[in-house]
Design a protein that fits this description.
Blueprint: H1 2-7, H2 9-14, E1 44-54, E2 64-80, E3 83-90, E4 93-97, E5 104-105, E6 111-121, E7 124-133, E8 146-155, E9 160-171, E10 178-190, E11 193-205, E12 217-228, E13 233-245, E14 252-263
Antiparallel strand pairs: 1-2, 1-14, 2-3, 2-4, 3-6, 4-5, 6-7, 7-8, 8-9, 9-10, 10-11, 11-12, 12-13, 13-14
């Protein structure tokens, strides 16, 4: 999928999880699967939107969780030795229903993140992401500001998307434990179609805050089906937990993702036409 490959690190970095958690991971586990997050993004502006739904959200004892995650990204013209600077912003919008907390649309922690993406050649790339998510005084968002960093490696030659991305989230206070997340993708393109398995896991790390309870961790497996329509790339993703500790229940979740390049890249020279 041409657009998906070009979108590279943008989507991966800022698929901001709008999951509702008692504590633990600020992002939603698995939110970057399907994106070659290690691949540098060509210069320009991009928009990505992900809608997800879970009738069995692991963070809720009962109820449904829906989310919309708009992402705006700028692949800047600034690069150094094949390493490009990327700037991104996201504004998650979770919606909860039939749960023991208020039904409705919630504010959630936005994100401001930069990335350094390097092209090693031969289809290999790696990206380092770093940034902050300000605290939001509205449950179920996190009241603490957090710092996050991610390291992603991708192979995108010959129609493959083989990607692993490891994230570390660090809170600025002691109400929530820090966390690690790992998302893995192994998809293959056949013409405009893309298909393949995905997997993801997460765990609390470090010292648990007083009164926090059980350490939370999970591991899920699933699949992805995508299609490149030309101006827009569409992906459908489904996954279910095969292991879960500390959460209310095991999670089954589906995502629909749109990737839209907005232009703004280098201008191509106008061809010279000679008249005879």
């Amino acid at each position: 999928m041409r657009i998906l490959k070009q979108f590279g690190l943008v989507a991966g970095l800022f698929l901001i999880g709008a999951g509702v958690s008692r504590a633990g991971t600020l992002l939603e586990p698995g939110e970057t699967v399907g994106i070659p997050t290690g691949a540098p993004l060509p210069q320009g502006f991009y928009f990505l939107d992900t809608f997800g739904f879970s009738p069995t959200a692991r963070q809720l004892p009962t109820g449904d969780l829906a989310m919309n995650i708009p992402v705006f990204a700028w692949s800047t013209p600034w690069s150094f030795y094949d390493t490009r600077l990327e700037l991104l912003a996201a504004f998650p919008e979770p919606y909860i229903s039939n749960a023991p907390i208020r039904t409705g649309l919630y504010a959630y922690n936005p994100a401001a993140i930069a990335a350094l993406a390097h092209d090693f050649g031969g289809g290999w790339g790696a990206t380092y992401y770093f940034g902050i998510r300000p605290g939001v005084p509205d449950a179920p968002s996190f009241h603490e500001t957090s710092f996050e960093q991610r390291l992603a490696v991708s192979y995108t030659a010959n129609g493959w998307n083989l990607t692993a991305i490891l994230e570390n989230g660090i809170f600025d206070q002691t109400y929530n434990p820090d966390y690690l997340m790992l998302d893995v993708t192994a998809t293959k393109k056949f013409g405009n179609f893309e298909i393949g398995p995905i997997a993801f896991g997460s765990t609390d790390v470090g010292r648990l805050p007083f009164g926090y309870g059980t350490r939370e961790s999970q591991f899920a497996v699933g699949g992805l089906l995508g299609y490149d329509f030309g101006p827009v790339t569409v992906q459908g993703i489904g996954a279910t937990d095969v292991e879960s500790q500390g959460y209310f229940r095991r999670d089954t979740r589906g995502f629909l993702r749109l990737i839209v390049p907005l232009g703004g890249g280098p201008q191509q020279p106008t061809p010279v036409v000679a008249k005879y």
